[in-house]
Amino acid sequence: MSSPHPAPVSPPRTADELLDALDPDQRDVALALNGPVCVLAGAGTGKTRAITHRIAYGVRTGAFAPTSVLAVTFTARAAGEMRTRLRELGAAGVQARTFHAAALRQLSYFWPKVVGGAPPKILEYKAPAVGEAARRLGVSVDRVAVRDLSSEVEWAKVSLVTADDYVRACEGIDREPPSGYDHKTVARLIAAYEEVKSERSVIDFEDVLLMLGDMLATQGPVADEVRRQYRRFVVDEYQDVSPLQQFVLDQWLGGRKELCVVGDPSQTIYSFTGASPHHLLTFATKFPGAQVIRLVRDYRSTPQVVTLANQLLARAGRKGGAHQALELIAQRPSGPPVAFTVYDDDEAESKGIAARVGRLMAAGTRASEIAILYRTNAQSEAFEAALADAGIGYLVRGGERFFQRKEVRDAIVLLRGSARSADPDVPMPESVRDVLITAGWSAEPPAARGAARERWESMQALASLADDVAALAPQDAPATVQTFVAELEERASAQHAPTVEGVTLASLHAAKGLEWDAVFLAGTSEGLMPISLAETDEAIAEERRLLYVGITRAREHLELSFARARNPGGRASRRRTRFLDGLWPDDEPSRTGGKRSRAGQAKLRLTGEYDQALFERLKEWRQQVAQETDKPAFTILVDTTLAAIAEARPTSVPELARINGIGPAKIDRFGETLLDIVARSRS
Asked: Quick check: 340 and 605 in contact, CB under 8 A?
């Protein structure tokens, strides 16, 4: 994620200045102008910087024309950021697009020549067509089933699996169909889905790639024209390429080798969508003699965060197709230790994290530089409520897109109308603010939270972006309202939204490619991390990589947490994720500091130096209770809790309540007895 307020940038004047801005490994990438080139880039190692400087260096030295380069990536935001950086480096003519955007542009251009007429409309959502296909087959579906079946249809298409091949393909890789259905039913549904689309004269996003790939493979003149235009290719996030995307890339190349790919197998987290690191891991085999360059200097995170990330992968072993992970080398100064926190229940976790967020903001960290990440979208509700109660603004990533918000659309209409009449002597940011005022914006945020504050945050993001655009403009050609509107329209087409001031709530999958000063990884317990649906070695390995992605989003502050129970007073049956075996300080006895609220406080680790005799007496008591109640001993109190009692030696119920693993129900049942055992141990 780029800085929300970049300093004015002057394009490097010479090719040497481009190289001077890079470290030795990044410089090797920039100098590797002729393919094939494979860049294995760890998290935070400056891969976007390296590949944009490589392109700019090639353009600056005359090694290739900017219009001959096609750079593709996986998100509109990443493509937009790449275009911005290339423009700043003096390589504005390079095409930087997502796979789908590049393919759609080419398909739309060639369709009238090859097929005739206008290309079919694109089906934005599969669900209605999938639902219709299910009804035709007499297959019972609900909203969740339609969603799952739509995802399976998409997986089949990006994996180049047809309805006829679906059963055999799934059996070959032991892939389970969506819950409640068998492989044959799903195969029939895929065929019916294609019929529905054909009758409605629409295509889906996967068809764009399929049709273009087929057109390039079968229409020689079309392929020749595309290959004359694009002679050099750069593919970012190559570990996430699907068989369908690789098929299109192969057609673009046409047997040529001018290809530079960038990726990190340790960040492969989208296999459920058909993504595979296979092409990245076998690149040197497919292209003998390819240059392989490793970027391992981590400029994003503190040594504390980097160490945890390295240790997490080092414990992966070689199950699930594990590879030799890149070991990152931290370049930033030492920072605060990584925090590991245990809460009594989910409510306590959400309120505890909201309180920590408030303290960070009070200490100077901007809300937009803080994120709360979780495994499933269903977890966001509790954090939304806790932040709202604390008066902290937030945005849920994956919600309504920025440029689709009504206040943003209305503001752009007003800005577009004022572009021609704006006073050229008035600085552009000031003119933009004058227009935003008419749309309801004010220099100071409203006191109210909720929708009013969200609308203000959206327009404030436009005001801040106007400052950024003005700062980046050359002195001899200052930015105008018209150029600002053009920037907004380009960003809207690429969904490259400006930074909105608010704490980010996002799933771990949605956080890929982003970074924040402070990250809270919530719900790091078994069943959520890894998710209970992950049953195979390969699925478990991907869940570990997902946690790695979450950890490496943090620049400075990182806190991992989980709750022992779902509801206040509920059974404390959860345990922290296996991925942090040997890394979580609560592998030692732990307790909390400070006062305990009724909602439950965080429990932090102790020194581990406890009264061994008292610990043994507590174990004897626990065994007696277990026998009397005919329950396993660990369901009474776990060893770490007994050890924490033996270390803290509480003399009152409030002191006992501060110990990890002692909730209200257990205090009511065992509190007096435990305090009596501790008291007798003193005599």
From this structure: yes
